[in-house]
């Protein structure tokens, strides 16, 4: 099984950096990229058509938040006939966000920060 | 029965029977008239009879005169006979006799029945020597004369010498020996002449002479007109010397009756006429009398009726002198009402039994009645009965005089209404009780109906609750809607109209304006009552709920506050979980990486990151401290602060930013404007909003910030208007004042400023509102209490 490509969308630069480093060290994914907010990521997807296999998505973001991003992503995915598996990664403990996430078909799971090696292994092994 | 009444009875008897009376008059009149006619008839008849008998008497005398003359002549003649039976100087004596007596035509001496001597001989020669005793015609008469030894007249017979005559024969005896006869011959014509018939001759009567035939014994008539007259009113005398009967006979059969018949007829008609006249004359009075009789009967009946009404009426009736007020008469019921007897009442007047308080009004009415100002009157008044009790009565006074007549008496109809009065009093009392009860209800009770706008009743409480008297309410059909609070008026009217239309009860809370201008919260509960098919009644109660409404509002405010606090708390917990966790998770990850790292450079790099995370954590904790301090500082100091002074201080702090961004600040606030606020909070709030206005400037234009202040609903408002990028309120409105909510990618936005400002304003009982259009600008309104 070829390794998956995993992209991070999060406004916390330290999280971005740390998580990216962890993914690289784990050697579980073939490629990783980080975006500071939804708009940035969508802009990139639209231009390049480069959609990853997995997205680690933060919810609480200024400007376009996670949910807005999801709506936009679905539109782009349809035009590229590709589908990314979304993992919502949040430090929030609010249950309402968990429930909301389940309404999105493309959202595979709701993960609590921090993202560690075990969680990455699970993501990598998921079909 | 007196005579008069008998006459009256008789009169009325006749008057009532016109036909009988007419018939009676007819019969009586007819009888009287016929009787008088009869008497008249009798008188005429008698006078006629008398006349006839007179005439007959004269005739008889004449005949008797002739006979006497004849007798004298025969005697004279007989005296001429001498003793030898020979007449002496016959011629001479005879001559003298015949010339003396006109009634004698001839004289004869008949010795032994043979006619020997006759004077005058001339014309009588044939009789000489005629033996009368042998003549059947004369023998019987001759023998009768001999037998009676008196003169006897025979005839009228046919004479030997011719003609008809009467012969009187006197038997002459000489020496008691029959000698012969001395006779006179009277010719029938002469005889008739001597009777004087001719002098009595008239149309009225005729005469007849009869003699019984000596041979046939039949009565023979000798004059003309021998018709049977036995049916006629004849008279007759007999002359025995000749056995004659003299008759006087009315020419016609008695016409007297016939003559009187028209009179009878006239009498009959006259009577009939009178009878009819009387009948018709009596008919009128009879009809009138009948009418009078029936009217009298009616009158009697009605009098009886009225009398019995008067006596037995269920109402008291008195007959009173209108001038003096004295009772003339009163019925039993009246006596029963006032407790006096009939006799006692007759000595009293109505003033004596009328309650003094009611007397003047009664007298005034009576005065007006007497003056003709009113035709009758009714009033309720009190009598004092014999026992001294008060009796309530309703009297109706009707005058017994006609218009334009002098007042005399009147009738008073009296109804005892004491019981009714008592029950009315009870009803009034209970009504008053209900009214008092309604008025004591702590709400405005009202009533209206579907037929007319407005209300028909409203309780007195309206004055206490809304300041308006019931009169003010009732006088204006649209009063209610006029005093509804303008903000509630439209929906309340619409809803009540809808409920009325659909016949549904109405229960709403709305505001009304008290007469003094205050707002009064009311709960209006309206029920619907069906009176009839088409009309419905509304009954409602307006309850003053201002106080409870205030409580409710306060409660709502508290609830809002609590909810807000809760929200903030929840937010806070999220902040704690999210913001702290994001840092701790970063620290965890970094430590993990450091442990995994084998490269020293990398380790150093990671440690530097760890340090920045620790700083960020520190900052977050500081921020949380700020928030917590606002939340926990329950009674921060409040001072009256000059707004411009604080604005200027803030602008001084932001001077670098203003200059750098070429921002223009327009402060339109006058110097005197103050707000009651905590000084530190005001500094923080002003700094936050003004710096935001500059920070979130529109990239294509220089920032302009306009500051205004005015009073709105008891709040001093500070308006901060910018021309910045604006906020999508639809999307972010609810998050605007949340902690760590940022809506731009501006690196300076921390998501904490508005959150803290909001908390500070809330704590000061103020509020904050925002209006914004994307790409045009945002206006914040801060309301200072």
TrEMBL record, chain A:
PTM annotation (4-aspartylphosphate): residues: 58
Family annotation (InterPro entries): Bact_response_regulator, CheY-like_superfamily, Sig_transdc_resp-reg_receiver
Annotated ranges, domain Response regulatory: 5-127
Superkingdom as given in the UniProt entry: Bacteria
GO biological process: phosphorelay signal transduction system
Gene3D superfamilies for this protein: 3.40.50.2300
Alphabetical list of PROSITE patterns matching this protein: RESPONSE_REGULATORY
Keyword Ribonucleoprotein: no
Entry keyword set: Phosphoprotein
Pfam family, one: Response_reg
Keyword Phosphoprotein: yes
PANTHER family: RESPONSE REGULATORY DOMAIN-CONTAINING PROTEIN, STRESS RESPONSE REGULATOR PROTEIN 1
Official protein name in the record: Response regulator receiver domain-containing protein
UniProtKB/TrEMBL annotation, chain B:
Record-annotated Histidine kinase domain positions: 575-785
Domain CHASE: 111-200
Coiled-coil blocks: none
Catalyses which reaction(s): ATP + protein L-histidine = ADP + protein N-phospho-L-histidine
Domain PAC: 377-429, 506-557
GO (cellular component) term, any one: membrane
UniProt keyword terms in alphabetical order: Kinase, Membrane, Phosphoprotein, Transferase, Transmembrane, Transmembrane helix
GO biological process: signal transduction
Annotated PAS domain residues: 325-373, 430-490
Gene3D superfamilies per UniProt: CHASE domain, Histidine kinase-like ATPase, C-terminal domain, PAS domain
Protein location: Membrane
Molecular function terms from GO: protein histidine kinase activity
InterPro entries membership: CHASE_dom (IPR006189), CHASE_sf (IPR042240), HATPase_C_sf (IPR036890), HATPase_dom (IPR003594), His_kinase_dom (IPR005467), PAC (IPR001610), PAS (IPR000014), PAS-assoc_C (IPR000700)
Keyword hit for Transcription regulation: no
Annotated EC: 2.7.13.3
Transmembrane segments: 20-39, 260-282
Entry-linked SMART domains: CHASE (SM01079), HATPase_c (SM00387), PAC (SM00086), PAS (SM00091)
Designated name of the protein: histidine kinase
Organism this protein belongs to: Flavobacterium saliperosum
């Amino acid at each position: 099984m070829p390794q998956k490509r995993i992209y991070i969308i999060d406004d916390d630069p330290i999280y971005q950096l740390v998580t990216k480093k962890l993914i690289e060290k784990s050697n579980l994914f073939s490629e990783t990229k980080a975006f500071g907010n939804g708009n940035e990521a969508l802009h990139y997807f639209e231009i390049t058509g480069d959609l990853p296999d997995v997205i680690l998505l933060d919810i609480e973001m200024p400007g376009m938040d996670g949910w807005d991003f999801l709506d936009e992503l679905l539109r782009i995915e349809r035009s590229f006939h590709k589908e990314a598996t979304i993992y919502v990664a949040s430090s929030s403990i609010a249950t309402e966000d968990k429930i909301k996430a389940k309404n999105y078909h493309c959202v595979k799971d709701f993960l609590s920060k921090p993202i560690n090696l075990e969680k990455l292994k699970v993501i990598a092994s998921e079909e | 029965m007196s005579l008069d009444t008998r006459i009256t009875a008789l009169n009325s008897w006749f008057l009532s029977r016109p036909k009988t009376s007419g018939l009676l008059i007819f019969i009586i009149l007819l009888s009287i008239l016929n009787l008088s006619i009869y008497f008249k008839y009798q008188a005429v008849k008698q006078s006629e009879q008398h006349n006839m008998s007179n005439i007959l008497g004269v005739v008889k005398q004449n005949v008797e005169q002739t006979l006497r003359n004849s007798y004298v002549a025969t005697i004279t003649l007989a005296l001429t006979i001498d003793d030898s039976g020979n007449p002496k100087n016959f011629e001479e004596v005879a001559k003298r006799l015949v010339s003396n007596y006109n009634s004698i035509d001839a004289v004869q001496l008949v010795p032994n029945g043979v006619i020997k001597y006759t004077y005058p001989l001339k014309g009588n020669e044939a009789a000489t020597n005629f033996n009368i005793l042998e003549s059947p015609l004369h023998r019987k008469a001759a023998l009768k004369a001999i037998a009676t030894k008196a003169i006897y007249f025979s005839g009228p017979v046919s004479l030997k010498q011719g003609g008809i005559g009467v012969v009187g024969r006197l038997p002459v005896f000489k020496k008691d020996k029959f000698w012969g006869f001395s006779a006179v011959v009277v010719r029938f014509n002469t005889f008739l002449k001597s009777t004087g018939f001719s002098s009595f001759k008239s149309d009225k009567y005729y005469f007849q002479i009869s003699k019984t035939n000596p041979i046939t014994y039949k009565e023979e008539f000798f004059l003309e007109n021998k018709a049977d007259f036995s049916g006629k009113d004849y008279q007759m005398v007999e002359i025995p010397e000749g056995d004659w009967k003299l008759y006087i006979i009315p020419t016609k059969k008695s016409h007297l009756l016939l003559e009187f018949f028209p009179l009878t007829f006239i009498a009959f008609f006259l009577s009939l006429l009178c009878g009819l006249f009387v009948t018709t004359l009596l008919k009128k009075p009879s009809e009138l009398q009948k009418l009078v009789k029936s009217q009298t009967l009616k009158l009697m009946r009605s009098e009886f009726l009225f009398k019995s009404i008067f006596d037995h009426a269920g109402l008291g009736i008195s007959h009173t002198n209108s001038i003096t007020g004295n009772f003339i008469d009163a019925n039993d019921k009246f006596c029963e009402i006032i407790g006096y007897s009939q006799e006692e009442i007759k000595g009293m007047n109505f003033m004596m039994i009328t309650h003094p308080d009611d007397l003047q009004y009664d007298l005034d009415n009576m005065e007006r009645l007497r003056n003709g100002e009113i035709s009758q009157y009714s009033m309720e008044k009190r009598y004092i009965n014999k026992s001294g009790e008060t009796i309530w009565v309703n009297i109706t006074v009707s005058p017994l005089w006609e218009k334009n007549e002098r007042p005399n008496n009147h009738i008073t109809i009296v109804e005892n209404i004491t019981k009714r009065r008592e029950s009315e009093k009870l009803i009034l009392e209970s009504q008053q009780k209900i009214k008092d009860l309604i008025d004591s209800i702590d709400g405005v009770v009202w009533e209206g109906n579907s037929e007319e706008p407005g209300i028909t009743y409203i309780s007195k409480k309206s004055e206490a609750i809304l300041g308006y008297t019931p009169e003010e309410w009732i006088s204006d059909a649209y009063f209610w809607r006029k005093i509804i609070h303008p903000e509630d008026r439209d929906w309340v009217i619409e809803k009540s109209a809808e409920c009325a239309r659909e016949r549904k009860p109405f229960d709403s809370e709305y505001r009304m304006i008290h007469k003094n201008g205050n707002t009064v919260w009311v709960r209006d509960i309206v029920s619907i009552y069906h009176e009839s098919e088409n009309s419905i009644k509304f009954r409602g109660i307006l309850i003053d709920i201002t106080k409870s409404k205030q409580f409710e509002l306060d409660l709502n405010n508290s609830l809002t506050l609590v909810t807000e606090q809760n929200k903030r708390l929840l937010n806070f917990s999220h902040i704690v979980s999210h913001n702290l966790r994001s840092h701790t998770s970063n620290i965890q990850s970094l430590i993990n990486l450091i442990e995994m790292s084998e490269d020293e450079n990398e380790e150093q790099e990671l440690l530097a990151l760890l340090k920045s995370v620790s700083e960020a954590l520190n900052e977050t904790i500081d921020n949380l401290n700020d928030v917590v301090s606002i939340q926990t500082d329950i009674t921060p100091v409040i001072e009256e602060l000059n707004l411009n002074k604080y604005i200027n201080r803030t602008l001084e702090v932001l001077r670098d930013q203003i200059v750098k961004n070429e921002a223009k600040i327009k402060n339109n606030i006058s110097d005197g404007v103050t707000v009651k606020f905590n000084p530190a909070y005001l500094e923080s709030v002003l700094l936050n909003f003004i710096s935001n206005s500059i920070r979130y400037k529109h990239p294509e234009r220089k920032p302009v910030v306009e500051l205004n202040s005015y009073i709105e609903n008891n709040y001093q408002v500070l308006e901060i208007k910018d021309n910045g990028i604006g906020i999508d309120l639809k999307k972010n409105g609810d998050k605007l004042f949340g902690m760590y909510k940022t809506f731009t990618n501006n690196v300076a936005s921390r998501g904490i400023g508005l959150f803290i400002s909001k908390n500070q304003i809330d704590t000061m009982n103020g509020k904050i509102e925002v209006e914004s259009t994307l790409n045009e600008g945002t206006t914040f309104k801060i309301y200072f209490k």
